[in-house]
Amino acid sequence: MKKYTILFGAICAVILAFSQNAKADFISFLDSPNDDLSGLSGPFGKVDVHLTSTTTATVTFTSLTNNGNIYLFGDGSTAAVNVNATTFTITGITGSNAGTGFTNLVTDYTAVNPPGTSNVDGKGSFNGVIDTFDGFTHSVDTLSFTLTNLSGTWSGVGDVLIQNAAGFDAAAHIFVTDDPAVQSNGASVTGFAGETGGTVTTPDGGATACLLGLALAGLAGIRARFGRK
């Protein structure tokens, strides 16, 4: 009985650990502006890295609002990340804008290898930079994409990005406009903002509860089957 219980417990621990790792997110904020954005209240955006396997992660940039402004992403270096991988791909790029009159069109991206060859104004060099078309008129308030590590594996969600020589692992090109965003209003100022660190969050939910329930049910079954022997 004891050996079955130990074995079952070990299996459950592996399942639960993988589940928690897959659910984990690395949340950070674009709170370090360059001189062009000085005097404005940040943070300017949120960066959410979600690990989907040991080699894939989705990254989502989301605009934030402060003091009546919304900070949109657009043009060259719309979003930049410094990926902790020698070789990788950026795929599945999607962008949207809930404002009025914007044309959302993500037309190009670059994933330069090796790291440290694409400079983002004031925030150092990044090895994954996404560009969108035609400035403010095509800016977005949400941008998402998938990273795939081709040169190894990530041990956890906090391992996906790594700080560059300037101390940043993500940055964005910011367009400042009144909230809610209206394309015809234009942008009052543009600049760049980076983020220097974040927090790993692991929200609990139904999936974890379900796994725990299955673990307990399985253990009860083992006890019923072998407990009398």
What report would you give on this structure?
By secondary structure, this protein is an alpha+beta fold. It folds into 2 domains: 1-24 and 204-229; 25-201. It contains 2 helices and 16 strands. The chain has helices at residues 2-23, 206-226; strands at residues 25-29, 32-33, 45-51, 56-63, 65-66, 69-73, 79-81, 88-96, 108-110, 118-120, 124-126, 128-131, 142-149, 170-178, 189-195, 198-201. The strands form 3 sheets. Strands 2, 5, 6, 7, 9, 12, 14 and 15 form an 8-stranded antiparallel sheet that branches. Strands 8-13-4-3-1-16 form a 6-stranded antiparallel sheet. The longest helix is centred in the N-terminal third of the chain and has 22 residues, at 2-23.
Give the helix/strand class.
alpha+beta
- Per DSSP, the total helix count is 2
The N- and C-terminal alpha carbons lie at a distance of 8 Å
Counting structural domains, the number is: 2
The proportion of strand residues reads 35-45%
**Backbone CA Rg:** 22 Å
Q: Which regions are unreliable across 5 or more consecutive residues at pLDDT < 50?
A: 4-20, 205-216
Helix content: 10-25%
- The outline comes out as globular
Largest sheet composition: 8 strands, antiparallel
Instruction: State the assembly state of the protein chains.
Output: single chain
The number of strands is 16
Mean pLDDT: 81
Order of helices and strands: HEEEEEEEEEEEEEEEEH
